[in-house]
UniProtKB/TrEMBL annotation:
Record-linked SUPFAM superfamilies: FAD/NAD(P)-binding domain (SSF51905)
Phylogenetic placement of the source organism: Bacteria, Bacillati, Bacillota, Bacilli, Bacillales
Domain FAD-dependent oxidoreductase 2 FAD-binding: 4-532
Keywords noted in UniProt: Flavoprotein, Oxidoreductase
The protein, known as: FAD-binding dehydrogenase
Length: 549
């Protein structure tokens, strides 16, 4: 079979690009090094949050949003400062993406059968001035069905194309080289890997049982970033985030190792913004891991008290859910690779959600009855499982018992009882009246002005030292690797650019491999809901561009 296009990577962006090209009649070879069980890649594991602007869901909740406000927030977060070089195309992609999120994105997804949970989340709240980092309003739209619900319509379109003979899907094909002729990419050289029964996300064998070369008029790289390659993360770790952590958890499977970025560079593509990355600070060890160092991110409401390894409150605005990378730097500057949440049962019942499709069976399974349970009292089942089995949780009826448990878990005596008691008592005094200088209390009171937070996300403010709201809970938090914000520099058609700024003939990149657009659509910081969205948008743009050729 003669192919028009080869797509390297069957994650979300690769599926989107493949679907767009196949429906235009292009003959596509879709290659992936993992077994078929992992089709959909990282997106399948995601919580399914998407960044939308001025949506019907927002308007129904009284949220007034606009493209201008979203662009202001994007610029405040991105901080583009390499616009004559590495940020040149990232900024162009950002402007196009914000227009897309405020325009046809929702209608396009709706036409594919994607629906949204009616309560819009408020992620990355910022905590700075109006032009600083953060979302000014809630924009985090959770897909009904979470990550699998995002993947499904594109996987279905691709499988239809496979059945019709337009797409040839070959898992267990590891691309080792991009074949070039006269500086143009004309194909790929692969190692054929041994069949594997590994389940989704599980590490698969790299035993080589053959090799093959495939040729086409264009090659699309959709192989993801470097999130599981901790050595490479540390190599490119920027000093502005403090020292790189000595220990990290992995928020992505082992195959997300950045291998194809180096291979694409060898073929003439340019990788930019290597020092820009996105790692979470609220990671906990998965008590039932799928991959090595498997971590789960807590999606916290704003009430938990955030402590460093010595039990000192982090300074404003390092509150849960406000500024991921700002808090990462604050933690790393302390010289430890972990921190603590301190909270009450009342807080964990209302505010703790866990990222990932498998941690949200109600939303993933599209169960209205189970979702309604989030409005009531009680600890969600997946969170209770971590309380019962997870090694990072300490539960106690008194502050003394809690401190003893924290120190035992950490293998130190860094947290001092009297010191922590003083800080919590000072915080609790802010509950006695309507006035306070504690900005975290001001923030959580403000959050409850939004009906979505008041209903399902933010506990009623209360005193942590009051036994009526207990028991007390401490959660040890680890740094959790996740996303690569830099990547292959691309123009708005998805064509990979060389060091000279010219397109490499026949070579395209989409998704995380392209920094979600242009080699860094997010700049220095992301606004959440924009990683899946970046995969959708870049796959769509490149697929439609190639389809016209």
């Amino acid at each position: 079979m003669k192919y028009d296009v080869i797509v390297v990577g069957a994650g979300l962006s690769g599926l989107v690009a493949t679907a767009e090209m196949a429906e235009a009649g292009k003959r596509v070879l879709l290659l992936d090094q993992e077994p078929e069980s992992s089709i959909g890649g990282q997106a399948w594991w995601s919580f399914g949050g998407l960044f939308l602007v001025d949506s019907p869901e927002q308007r129904r909740l009284g949220i007034r949003d606009s493209c201008d406000l979203a662009w202001q927030d994007w610029l405040g977060a991105a901080g583009f400062d390499r616009e004559d070089d590495e940020d040149q195309w990232g900024r162009k992609w950002a402007e196009a993406y914000v227009d897309f999120a405020a325009g046809e994105k929702r209608a396009w997804l709706h036409s594919l059968g994607i629906r949204f949970f009616p309560v819009v989340g408020w992620a990355e709240r910022g905590g700075y001035l109006a032009e600083g980092h953060g979302n000014s309003v809630p924009r985090f739209h959770i897909v009904w069905g979470t990550g699998p619900g995002v993947v499904q319509p594109f996987e279905s379109r691709v499988r239809d194309a496979i059945r019709s003979g337009v797409v040839d899907y070959r898992p267990r094909h590891q691309v080792d080289e991009l074949i070039t002729r006269e500086n143009a990419v004309i194909g790929v050289r692969c190692s054929v890997l041994a069949p594997s029964s590994a389940g989704r996300g599980e590490e698969s064998s790299r035993e080589v049982v053959g090799d093959y070369e495939y040729y086409a008029e264009a090659v699309v790289v959709s192989s993801g970033g470097i999130g599981a390659n901790h050595e490479l993360i540390r190599q490119h770790w920027p000093s502005r985030l403090g020292k790189p952590p000595r220990a990290m958890l992995s928020g992505v499977p082992a195959h997300v190792d950045g291998r194809m970025l180096g291979i694409t560079e060898q073929a003439g593509g340019r990788v930019v913004n290597r020092d820009r990355m996105w790692h979470y600070t609220e990671g906990i060890k998965n008590w039932d891991p799928v991959w090595s160092k498997h971590g789960i991110r807590i999606l916290p409401g704003p009430s938990s008290v955030w402590l460093d390894a010595k039990g000192q409150r982090l300074p404003a605005p390092n509150f849960p859910g406000f500024d991921t990378l700002g808090t990462l730097k604050a933690i790393q500057d302390k010289g430890f690779d972990y921190s603590w949440f301190l909270l009450t049962r009342k807080v964990i019942e209302k505010e703790f959600a866990l990222s990932g499709s498998e941690q949200n069976p109600d939303l993933t399974g599209k169960s209205i009855r189970k979702v309604l349970g989030r409005v009531g009292s009680g600890i969600p089942g997946p969170v209770q499982a971590f309380l019962d089995h997870g090694e990072d949780f300490v539960v106690a009826d008194s502050l003394r018992e809690l401190v003893d448990g924290m120190n035992k878990l950490a293998g130190s005596d860094l947290v001092k009882l009297e010191d922590l008691k003083r800080q919590l008592a000072a915080r609790d005094r802010g509950m006695d009246h309507a006035f306070t200088k504690d900005l975290q209390i001001t923030a959580l009171r403000g959050a409850r002005n939004y009906i979505g937070d008041r209903l399902v996300r933010v506990a009623k403010p209360h005193k942590f030292l009051d036994p009526a709201h207990g028991p007390l809970i401490a959660v040890r938090l680890h740094i959790l690797s996740r996303k690569t914000l830099g990547g292959l520099q691309t123009d708005l058609s998805g064509r990979v650019l060389s060091a000279s700024g010219d397109p490499v003939p026949g070579l395209y990149a989409v998704g995380e491999a392209a920094g979600f657009g242009g080699g860094g659509v997010h700049g220095y910081r992301a606004l959440e809901g924009t990683f899946l969205g970046g995969c959708l948008f870049t796959g769509r743009q490149a697929g439609r561009s190639i389809a016209k050729l």
